[in-house]
Amino acid sequence: MNPYLDLFLTFARIGVCTFGGGYAMLPIVQLEVVEKRSWATEDELMDYYAIGQCTPGVIAINTATFIGYKQRGIAGAVCATAGMIFPSLVIIIIIASFIQQFAHLPIVQDAFSGVRIAVCALVVQSVWKLAKKSVVDVPTALILLITFASVAFFGVSPVIMVIFSGAVGVLLGLFRRRRT
Fold first, then answer.
1. How far, in Å, CA of 8 to CA of 21, rounded?
2. Whole-angstrom Cα distance, residue 163 to residue 108?
3. Fewer CB atoms near the end CB (10 Å): N or C, the chain?
4. Orientation angle between helical segments 22-30 and 106-134, nearest 10 degrees
């Protein structure tokens, strides 16, 4: 198969089969990109997630762009990104044309309530997988807890906490290298 078409179709499948936003897509991205296609390693994908979280846009789309670029340069990045976006665009246009007519129906409201719960479960699963790979010792556990508490309870900007966490990570790395 054409590698560009393969990138487009792979990410289109991910985009069409995943509901709940960028974080909900992460387990499927991991399955397709690492386990099925070997386009990236677990560590590379974790780095893409981290960079994707720090850059503007949806994390899953940013990750698709990184993977496409790794596979086929700029054209690959465009194909992977277009594949990830295309199904959502089509589905949103279809839903937007009908939502006002059906949003008030109890069955539609009940369906949205159920979907929101499922999305929460998918996000928690993604966070759990990321935490298991990222929290490797007491200092990284402290970074996690401080970042979570700062953002969740004290309203600190996530951007500030990403910068803070990156700086602490650099300092920890320098400290560890100096000790050895």
1. 19
2. 41
3. C
4. 60
Exposed e or buried b per residue across 108-121, where buried means at least 16 C-beta atoms within 10 angstroms of its C-beta: eeeeeeeeeeebee
The overall average pLDDT reported for the chain is 90
Give CA–CA dist 61/84, Å, rounded: 6
Residues in CB range of 158: below 8 A, 6 or more apart: 151
Is 22:127 a contact under the CB 8 Å cutoff?
Answer: no
CA distance 21 to 15: 9
Q: What is the pLDDT of residues 33-53, one digit of tens each?
A: 999 999 999 889 988 988 887
Q: Rounded distance, CA 86 to CA 92, Å?
A: 10
0.90 surpassed by pTM: no
